[in-house]
């Protein structure tokens, strides 16, 4: 069995009406993508929370999945008639039936953080059975180890002195999938707590901790922030880091350490200025346009 993919070039005003008409006339699914994706002309449209809605791309590809027996010419004629369009440019592709689960899994390989720390999807064998292997499947929540922000935090945790980490209580602020909390515990941390405003992230973190056989506790952030921590990691959006700076500072012991990520290079000076009120900040660490900021809590 196979399906047809009908890919139609579209301008911004046409894209959504086009997708609606295609669905009304038998398309199994419809997606809208940037016509310049993966090129230098690719258009970024997603901002941080609080930014105005950006709309969609100026030039788009509207892709409809159709039954193998669909009358494509009749469908195109109907679409053009209803939307009063003429001369639509399109491509038609055929896709064969396949094991979609295996195809998706094939995209995710184990991720090396250090020689002794790996993120391993559950369907893979660990490349180094003797390493600290975090079993984590993509898609549960933000933070699978593949993004530079997560990788920066994991690398920072891995280089902390073992004796120091063993005596520390650690807070993963905005835990997402729980990956940083789980890593901290596997690396030898004492008490580990994770908090998040998203209840699904808390559930995912608890499940992932269980799957990795580690004792880390996760809460809604509104219910648990009542003790100071030796180490705080926060891999969240820079806008949230700005707003939450006093909360994060209050949650860190004097002389404690903080690691902040989710920060673009263009945002680092703003965050450094903000957190310097409470922390002695270190030299930023950069990877692929993202930044990790670390510091030590000042004593009064």
From TrEMBL:
It catalyses: L-lysyl-[protein] + 3 S-adenosyl-L-methionine = N(6),N(6),N(6)-trimethyl-L-lysyl-[protein] + 3 S-adenosyl-L-homocysteine + 3 H(+). InterPro entries: Ribosomal_L11_MeTrfase_PrmA, Ribosomal_PrmA_MeTrfase, SAM-dependent_MTases_sf. Its EC number is 2.1.1.-. Keywords: Cytoplasm, Methyltransferase, Ribonucleoprotein, Ribosomal protein, S-adenosyl-L-methionine, Transferase. It holds the Pfam family PrmA. It comes from the Bacteria. GO terms for biological process: methylation. S-adenosyl-L-methionine binds at residues 150, 174, 196, 235. Gene3D superfamilies: Vaccinia Virus protein VP39. It is found in: Cytoplasm. GO terms for cellular component: cytosol; ribosome. One of its GO terms (molecular function) is protein-lysine N-methyltransferase activity. Methylates ribosomal protein L11. Belongs to the methyltransferase superfamily. PrmA family. This is Ribosomal protein L11 methyltransferase.
């Amino acid at each position: 069995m196979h399906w047809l993919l009908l890919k139609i070039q579209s301008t911004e005003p046409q894209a959504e009406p086009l997708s609606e008409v295609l669905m009304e006339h038998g398309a199994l699914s419809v997606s809208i993508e940037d016509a310049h994706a993966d090129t230098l002309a690719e258009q970024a449209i997603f901002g941080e929370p609080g930014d105005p809605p950006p709309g969609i791309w100026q030039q788009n590809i509207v892709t409809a999945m159709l039954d193998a027996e669909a009358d494509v010419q009749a469908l195109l004629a109907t679409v053009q008639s209803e939307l009063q369009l003429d001369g639509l440019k399109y491509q038609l592709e055929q896709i064969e039936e396949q094991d979609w689960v295996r195809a998706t899994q094939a995209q995710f390989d184990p991720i090396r953080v250090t020689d002794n720390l790996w993120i391993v999807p559950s369907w893979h064998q660990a490349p180094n059975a003797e390493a600290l292997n975090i079993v984590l499947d993509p898609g549960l929540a933000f933070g699978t180890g593949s993004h530079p922000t997560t990788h920066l935090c994991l690398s920072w945790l891995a280089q902390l002195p073992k004796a120091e980490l063993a005596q520390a209580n650690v807070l993963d602020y905005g835990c997402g999938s729980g990956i940083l909390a789980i890593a901290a515990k596997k690396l030898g941390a004492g008490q580990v707590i994770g908090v998040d405003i998203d209840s699904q992230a808390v559930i995912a973190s608890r499940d992932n901790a269980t799957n990795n056989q580690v004792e880390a506790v996760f809460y809604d952030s509104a219910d648990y922030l009542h003790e100071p921590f030796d180490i705080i990691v926060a891999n969240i959006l820079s806008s949230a880091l700005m707003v939450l700076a006093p909360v994060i500072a209050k949650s860190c012991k004097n002389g404690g350490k903080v690691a902040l990520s989710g920060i673009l290079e263009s945002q680092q000076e703003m965050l450094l200025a903000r957190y310097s009120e409470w922390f002695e900040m270190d030299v930023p660490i950069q990877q692929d346009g993202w930044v990790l900021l670390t510091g030590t809590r000042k004593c009064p």
